[in-house]
């Protein structure tokens, strides 16, 4: 139950609307009224008959016309301002007055009202009556309240219609007779054009109807804020980020709440999605907003997505209804399911990659992405780790804490383990059971080096030379040679030397076993002959048991001899072969002994397989380089422990690298992370199935399917409404005919539509757009809605929104308290405006307090925001999430300050002399004309802190246009962003491509700076300044007679306090952002710079890496840094926004950047327009360099760091 006191408070706020009420207390105001009572008869007769009449024909006295012309200009400006900002029409002609003061009532009430139109015609205005007369509702209610008299408006209007005069005597007589002797009314005739509204009386009347549960909740106790909510499957009709999706989900549940709409953060977009979702659920929505521009933007947005007429405006009802009917008739059946399936499939594929990249390995507790970053970090160190060693998979988990292994490795280093590597000594990692065994083997090695090897080498060289063998290359060759010579010796002991000269093929066949194939092909006689011949080769007295095998051996010996020999000599046995063979056997035994103690894990060939030169070096190393075996036992014990920890391969590699003690930890980390990568990938090989091209295609597929689904959402909603429309027509044929007849008149309003088709109207207009002050007049209390959306709610008092709230069950309020407040307005132009009492609270703040608030924080302005950091800091506590534009990176400033250094002082010392100096006025005028001439495609708004200066600018522009008619198209164009000059206090929710802010104040005649700057120094000056700054879409140009350093910092107040800092912002250079460097991106930066690109990773905390070449600028984002709360934000909204802001959006992928960074750099360079792979090559190659092409000729040193860069190249880069 709403308390009576609260209702009275609301009623007082309603009565305060307009500051004064000419329909209740009419007063003569020549400043803002046009008196037609003494107008010229010729013009008057034309006017009262409905004709369009020039003001100069109504008021012909020059002095009176001048006053009337000024009043008409003010009335017209006031009417337009109130219409645009509050949604009500105030241009009226009042006729007749009823004064109640004779009975003690402070009432002077006009009797009749006519809507009037006033149109500017060069230096004149055209006036006409814009509709039939109505009786002032205040007169009706006042007569009943004061005298108990019930006035019948129809009877009164019938009296008025009896005469051609606008206020005939019969009207006054009727009222006098109706009042009779009970009232002492003073009735008089008057005809005045002025600004007034009946909205106050209509609002007060609406308060007499009962309040609903929503209003009772609103005046209840503050709530606990908003609870978390699960976001269901939604069907948005335009893009929605995570916050917007959450708002839609809350609206869908029927919850009431507030939405704080920070500038440029997708306000209208969110409202469109909320409304479409509610309509999809079969709900009816009432949208109230004081500003026509907001409602028009909303209607236009629906039209742009194929839902024209879904929201019906009060001032464009006929157009919107016709559009809705056309849409309903043309809509065809549509379904989202196939598109949704396609999008879900794209999501699944995309998720599979990022899950493989970012999911934590269950064994090691790290992800692939983290491993790649850690490896890149190690490689980016000035002295990077170089090891290629791996740690066994089963040992990796043990070394997640590497302290124990590191201690052992450092202990091994202290013992000298890493002073030598396998390339330094043959004794590296030799194995001995005792010190005695070590010494024994060393002695053997020394004997081999000093005696055995030289002696054997010499004797065998002589043997090979004597028999014309090719020089031996290894011990294995010696072994083969000696085996052959020993075999030849055995053969010659049994056979005559001629056996090596005779072809033995037939003899071998003849002596073959009985079942041999060759034997079977030979006749018996021939076989006997050949066997006899074979025995003839035996030495006298010799016998061979197996002649066949002996002949085969001889054949093989001859073939080997021919292959070993460099001459044509037959096999022979040199003298001393037996001694040499014995010496070789002793040498081989010693060599095998040494080999048995050498490194069992060595990748080098065994000693017997080494070339003789290498063997000689190895033996020398073993004989001489025995330092590697110092304190062998202690090192062997430590290495045994190292081997148990699985670090043997790493320790061996550390020896190869000769690492210093402080480098061991880095090498250990490198080995662990490299091994971890192989281990993780072995358990989840899915990551290897993606190439950069495939991932890019997956992202594009998701973007395309998501965009298609959103686009189809509007079609599905249109089809749904179309079906309801056709069902409604079939169910209500009579109403359908009445609706048709009404639309034929081309005149439609909400009440007329309800009267003609009460059951069809909710179907054809599921969404209704009105101003809050229009609600009682246009929407009967019986019309109920499921939800009311209050837009620009920070500028609406609670009382003003109550009529709308009474007609709904759910409330969502959108607003921004930094730029709006329910300050009200003065209904009439006055020399000194009346400042009424302001409401304590806006409906936005009340809803936020009671129900909770969501905040739209991400700015979607593709042109950026001038003074964005200043605005964010001073007005929004750094809550807006801005992204910089490409033009900002290229150095284009969105805020320019122009200071006049001449003629910037007042000419006199009188009060107000510093306001609106001529020099500033002329510069502003030049800027306006220059913009209209050179940039007519961009809208322009001119604002001043001085209302006097703003008026002078308006007059100067009008005068200049008389000589520049070619610019009229610009000044009449741009629709809702039409050129305008306003004082800063009059600015509200305006947007223009460019804003010129002319301060409007100069220095005193003595050169001092004033301590007040007009409206900026007023109570709401800070809000005025915020409104100014968020009005610019592209650029703000400030014109001032005062340097920023001259603005006092101690004598100013309100908005003027921020003036100095704002002006100084034009001179402040952007500072590099401090953030942790990403090793992979840092390496990519170096490579891009070497290719000729300009690269910056400190430009913005929100952009990981920025690169440019020429006029192309790119944002480079890796797949491990993709800001966003969901897939749509990451892969659709962010890339789309950055592209719209002028950036070339480039994604780089972890594995591609890790494995082949140069290829990635080349690809990016070519996208930026660099001809990297198509650079011209010289026709003739030459090694000669002219001096002028040398480093010295250009003043550089002659040295090169290429070799160092090659050495520092991390091993995983190949």
Automatic annotation (TrEMBL):
<dbReference type="InterPro" id="IPR027417">
    <property type="entry name" value="P-loop_NTPase"/>
</dbReference>
<feature type="compositionally biased region" description="Basic and acidic residues">
    <location>
        <begin position="1201"/>
        <end position="1214"/>
    </location>
</feature>
<protein>
    <submittedName>
        <fullName>Unannotated protein</fullName>
    </submittedName>
</protein>
<feature type="region of interest" description="Disordered">
    <location>
        <begin position="1193"/>
        <end position="1214"/>
    </location>
</feature>
């Amino acid at each position: 139950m709403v308390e009576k006191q609260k209702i009275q408070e609301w009623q007082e706020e309603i009565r305060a609307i307009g500051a004064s009420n000419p329909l209740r207390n009419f007063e003569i105001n020549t400043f803002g009224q046009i008196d037609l009572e003494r107008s010229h008869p010729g013009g008057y007769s034309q006017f009262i008959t409905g004709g369009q009449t020039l003001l100069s024909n109504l008021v012909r006295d020059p002095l009176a016309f001048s006053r009337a012309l000024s009043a008409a200009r003010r009335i017209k400006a006031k009417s337009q301002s109130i219409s645009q900002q509050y949604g009500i029409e105030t241009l009226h002609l009042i006729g007749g007055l009823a004064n109640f003061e004779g009975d003690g009532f402070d009432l002077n009430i006009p009797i009749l009202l006519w809507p009037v139109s006033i149109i500017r015609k060069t230096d004149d205005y055209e006036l006409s009556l814009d509709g039939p007369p109505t009786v002032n509702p205040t007169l009706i209610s006042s007569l009943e309240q004061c005298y108990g008299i019930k006035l019948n408006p129809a009877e009164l209007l019938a009296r008025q219609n009896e005469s051609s005069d606008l206020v005939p005597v019969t009207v006054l007589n009727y009222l006098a007779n109706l009042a009779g002797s009970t009232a002492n009314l003073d009735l008089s005739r008057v005809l005045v054009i002025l600004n007034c509204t009946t909205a106050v009386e209509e609002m007060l009347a609406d308060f007499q109807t009962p309040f609903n549960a929503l209003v009772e909740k609103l005046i209840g106790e503050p709530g606990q804020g908003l609870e978390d909510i699960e976001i269901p499957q939604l069907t948005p009709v335009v893009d929605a980020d995570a916050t917007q999706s959450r708002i839609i989900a809350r609206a869908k549940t029927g919850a009431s709440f507030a939405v704080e709409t920070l500038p440029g953060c997708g306000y209208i977009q969110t409202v469109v999605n909320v409304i479409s979702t509610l309509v999809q659920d079969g709900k009816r929505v009432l949208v109230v907003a004081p500003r026509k521009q907001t409602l028009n933007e909303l209607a236009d947005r629906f039209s742009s997505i194929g839902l024209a007429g879904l929201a019906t405006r009060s001032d464009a009802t006929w157009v919107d209804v016709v559009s809705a009917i056309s849409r309903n008739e043309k809509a065809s059946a549509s379904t989202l399911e196939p598109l949704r399936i396609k999008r879900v499939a794209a999501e699944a594929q995309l998720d599979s990659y990022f899950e493989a990249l970012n999911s934590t390995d269950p064994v090691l507790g790290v992800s692939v992405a983290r491993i790649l970053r850690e490896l890149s970090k190690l490689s980016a160190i000035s002295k990077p780790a170089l090891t290629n060693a791996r740690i066994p998979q089963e040992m990796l988990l043990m070394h997640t804490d590497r302290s124990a292994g590191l201690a052992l490795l450092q202990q091994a280093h202290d013992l000298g383990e890493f002073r030598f590597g396998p390339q330094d000594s043959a004794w590296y990692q030799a194995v001995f059971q005792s010190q005695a065994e070590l010494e024994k083997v060393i002695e053997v090695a020394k004997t081999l080096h000093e005696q055995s090897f030289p002696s054997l080498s010499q004797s065998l060289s002589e043997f090979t030379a004597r028999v014309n063998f090719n020089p031996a290359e290894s011990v294995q060759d010696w072994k083969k040679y000696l085996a052959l010579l020993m075999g030849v010796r055995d053969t010659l002991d049994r056979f005559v030397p001629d056996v090596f000269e005779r072809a033995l093929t037939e003899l071998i066949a003849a002596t073959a076993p009985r079942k041999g194939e060759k034997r079977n092909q030979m006749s018996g006689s021939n076989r006997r002959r050949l066997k006899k011949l074979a025995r003839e080769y035996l030495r006298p007295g010799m016998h061979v048991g197996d002649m066949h095998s002996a002949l085969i051996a001889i054949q093989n010996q001859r073939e080997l001899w021919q292959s070993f020999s460099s001459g044509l000599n037959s096999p022979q046995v040199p003298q001393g072969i037996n001694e040499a063979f014995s010496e070789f056997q002793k040498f081989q035994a010693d060599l095998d002994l040494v080999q048995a103690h050498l490194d069992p894990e060595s990748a080098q060939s065994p000693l017997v397989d080494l070339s003789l030169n290498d063997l000689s070096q190895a033996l020398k190393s073993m004989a001489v380089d025995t330092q590697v075996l110092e304190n062998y036992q202690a090192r062997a014990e430590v290495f045994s422990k190292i081997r148990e920890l699985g670090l043997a391969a790493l320790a061996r590699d550390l020896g190869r690298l000769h690492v210093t003690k402080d480098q061991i930890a880095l090498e250990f980390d490198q080995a662990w992370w490299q091994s971890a990568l192989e281990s993780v990938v072995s358990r989840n090989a899915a990551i290897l199935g993606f190439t950069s091209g495939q991932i890019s295609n997956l992202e594009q597929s998701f973007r395309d399917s998501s965009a298609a689904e959103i686009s189809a959402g509007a079609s599905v909603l249109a089809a749904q409404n179309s079906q309801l429309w056709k069902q409604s027509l079939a169910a209500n044929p009579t109403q359908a005919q009445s609706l048709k007849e009404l639309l034929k008149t081309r005149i439609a309003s909400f009440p007329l539509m309800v009267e003609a088709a009460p059951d069809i109207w909710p179907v054809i207009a599921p969404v209704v757009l009105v101003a809050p002050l229009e609600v009682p007049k246009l929407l009967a209390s019986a019309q109920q809605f499921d939800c009311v959306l209050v837009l620009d709610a920070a500028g609406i008092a609670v009382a003003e929104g109550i009529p709308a709230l009474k007609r709904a069950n759910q409330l969502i309020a959108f607003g921004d308290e930094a730029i709006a407040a329910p300050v009200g307005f003065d209904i009439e132009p006055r020399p000194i405006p009346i400042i009424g009492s302001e409401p304590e609270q806006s409906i936005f703040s009340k809803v936020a307090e009671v129900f909770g608030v969501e905040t739209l924080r991400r700015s979607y302005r593709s042109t950026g925001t001038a003074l964005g950091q200043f605005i964010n800091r001073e007005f929004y506590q750094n809550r807006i999430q801005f992204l910089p534009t490409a033009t900002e990176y290229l150095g284009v400033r969105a805020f320019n300050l122009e200071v006049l250094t001449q003629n910037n002082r007042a000419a006199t010392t009188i009060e107000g002399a510093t306001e609106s100096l001529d020099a500033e006025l002329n510069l502003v005028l030049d800027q306006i004309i220059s913009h209209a001439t050179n940039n007519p495609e961009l809208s322009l708004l001119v604002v001043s802190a001085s209302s006097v200066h703003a008026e002078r600018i308006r007059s100067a522009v009008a005068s200049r246009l008389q000589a520049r008619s070619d610019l009229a198209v610009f000044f009449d164009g741009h629709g809702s962003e039409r050129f305008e000059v306003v004082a800063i206090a009059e600015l509200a929710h305006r947007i223009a491509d460019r804003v010129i802010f002319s301060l409007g104040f100069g220095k005193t005649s003595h050169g001092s700076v004033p301590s007040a700057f007009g409206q900026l120094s007023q109570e709401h000056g800070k809000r005025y300044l915020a409104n100014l700054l968020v009005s610019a879409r592209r650029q703000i140009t400030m014109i001032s007679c005062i340097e920023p350093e001259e603005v006092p910092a101690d004598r100013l107040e309100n908005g003027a306090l921020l003036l100095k800092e704002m002006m100084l912002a034009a001179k402040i250079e952007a500072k590099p952002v401090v953030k942790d460097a990403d090793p992979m991106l840092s390496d990519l930066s170096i490579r891009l710079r070497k290719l000729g690109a300009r690269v910056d990773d400190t430009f913005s905390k929100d952009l990981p890496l920025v690169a440019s070449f020429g006029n192309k600028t790119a944002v480079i984002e890796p797949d491990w840094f993709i800001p966003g709360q969901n897939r749509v934000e990451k892969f659709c909204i962010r890339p789309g926004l950055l592209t719209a802001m002028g950036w070339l959006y480039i994604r780089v992928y972890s594995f591609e950047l890790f494995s082949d960074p140069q290829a990635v750099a080349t690809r990016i360079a070519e996208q930026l327009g660099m001809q990297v792979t198509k650079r011209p090559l010289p026709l003739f190659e030459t090694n000669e360099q002219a001096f002028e092409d040398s480093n010295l000729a250009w003043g550089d040193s002659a040295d090169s760091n290429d070799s160092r860069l090659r050495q520092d190249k991390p091993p995983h880069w190949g």
